[in-house]
Amino acid sequence: MEAQNVEILTNQETIELLYRALQKGDTSTVAKVVASDVEWWFHGPHHCQHMMRLLTGEPPSQVSFRFEPSSVQVVVPGHDCVIAEGWEGSKVYWVHVWKLKDGVVTELREYFNTWLTVTDYSLGAIGWDMGRCTVWESVPRDVARGSLPSLLLAI
């Protein structure tokens, strides 16, 4: 029996692979890294639910929005949470919070035109602010000289 060459990816590498696969329309790779029963939460205008349309198999050519993350990072070592954010021109800002289990995406929280602060209540006293520890914040940028709503996500 020949040994299989199986590459083990970090959670961050898995999410980076997912974005590349989505851009190419590689549904086989998407199906391998996203659970069929992925839990999805969305905050933003209804017409901006682009990622779910891609994850459910709508061809990239049918989705006019392209996700090109400006950053993809693990926010707390040891947690299965990866955050990606990006801009579409100067008017659209998005954040994806991915949770993975055994290298497979099990949850996606998607935010459009929303500033996000992510906290971890289990980290202890480092960086505490009223009992919480901020582990990630949206990167500020002038969005059409307007303001965006802010949300706090506890992990």
UniProtKB/TrEMBL annotation:
SUPFAM superfamilies, per database record: NTF2-like (SSF54427)
Top-rank taxon, per record: Eukaryota
One Pfam family recorded for the sequence: WI12
InterPro entries recorded: NTF2-like_dom_sf, Wun1-like
PANTHER family referenced in this protein's UniProt entry, alphabetically: OS05G0342100 PROTEIN, OS07G0691300 PROTEIN
Full protein name: SENESCENCE-ASSOCIATED GENE 20
Organism taxonomic ancestry: Eukaryota, Viridiplantae, Streptophyta, Embryophyta, Tracheophyta
